[in-house]
Amino acid sequence: MEKIYDILIVGGGPAGISAGIYAKRAGRDVVILEKFMPGGQLGLIGQIENYAGFKSIDGNELAMNFFSHAQSLNIPFIMEEAKEFAKVDDLYKITTPSQTLFAKAIILALGSHSKELNIQGEKEYKGKGVSYCALCDGNFFKGKDVAVIGSGDSAFSDVEYLSNICNKVYLLTKDYLKVKNYAGDEFSDKTNVEVLKGAISQKISGGMTVESLEFLQDGTLKQVNVDGVFVAIGRSPDTKALQGFVEMNEGGFVKTDDKMKTSLDGVYACGDLREGSLRQIATAVGDGAIAGTEASKYVLLYNYKHKNDK
After folding, report:
1. What is the CA radius of gyration of the chain?
2. In the predicted model, what is the mean pLDDT of the chain?
């Protein structure tokens, strides 16, 4: 007979671990499935200065703190990737490369990843001047010159934020006038913002850290000297395996209500893969707390129903 968990959490980042802590403390039999490493992508971040309670902490150190907290509650981790999701009668089945797991409820916390430019120097300077989160890393470039690359609302909001702390902000955008919530003269009163319309990024260069960005504009190769490059061309949720399982929006983000409930009873989603998420550590932890609590309530009702059915 296969073991049946109360709650199976897919994703061991801040959202998933937070969900696990709340569910475990509620007395549920919990397991976390994580394909990468405990703490998820948090372990790839450098210094973090916007998570309450820590003036500054290394991402990997914070990831290990999350993991240690989960271990102190004896929450098991299975280091495998979830490949398939299905509902079998009144249980949920998750298939990994080596086994099949069953649970009464599922919490989806698979996260998302930033889209990349795929230009020369981008990978080399990740964490050395190339960033995908202005809110996370902008403070490291206070008083410096930076470039923001993107044509969506997120790129424009990054420029708005960075212009208040940086010396100079270049916006490299293909479609300046097509952005939903910004007018053509949005930054006309920002003397430290320069909009480079029709700019196509080509190469990021530097020494130990970023020093310049090359781009094509009107067929001419140009360059700006910057200390940082913020890539804001969107994010992709890690929800490929969820296609046809739960309801998602056009971008692949999972739809939930304010209690993290998805389109399926007993399935909850939290963190970066959720539609409308701010995609910050603090909000991921908050989402996880709600998901863990609500999934625990669902399991209580599940157990009560099946006890009465016998």
Report:
1. 22
2. 92
CATH code for the domain in which residue 304 is found: 3.50.50.60
Question: Hunting for tokens 């910050």 — which residue is that?
Answer: 280
- CA-based torsion, 260, 38, 110, 296: positive or negative: negative
The Cα-based distances of 83 to 44, 146, 221 in angstroms read 23, 40, 44
Domain that holds residue 288: 4-113+235-309
**Confidence (pTM):** 0.75
Domain count, the chain: 2
Is pLDDT of 264 > 80? yes
CB 180 within 8 A of CB 196: no
> For residue range 91-111, what is the model confidence (pLDDT) as tens digits?
999 999 999 999 999 999 999
State both tokens at 89.
């009668």
Same domain, 215 and 287: no
Among 110, 116, 123, residue whose Cα is nearest residue 234: 116
Cα angle 226, 227, 230 (rounded to 5 degrees) comes to 85
Q: Could you say which of 182, 199, 231 is where a domain stops?
A: 231
Alpha carbons within 13 A on the beta-carbon side of 228: 27
User: Which residue, 156, 159, 173, 182, is CA-closest to 228?
Assistant: 159
Cβ neighbours around 226 below 10 Å, total: 24
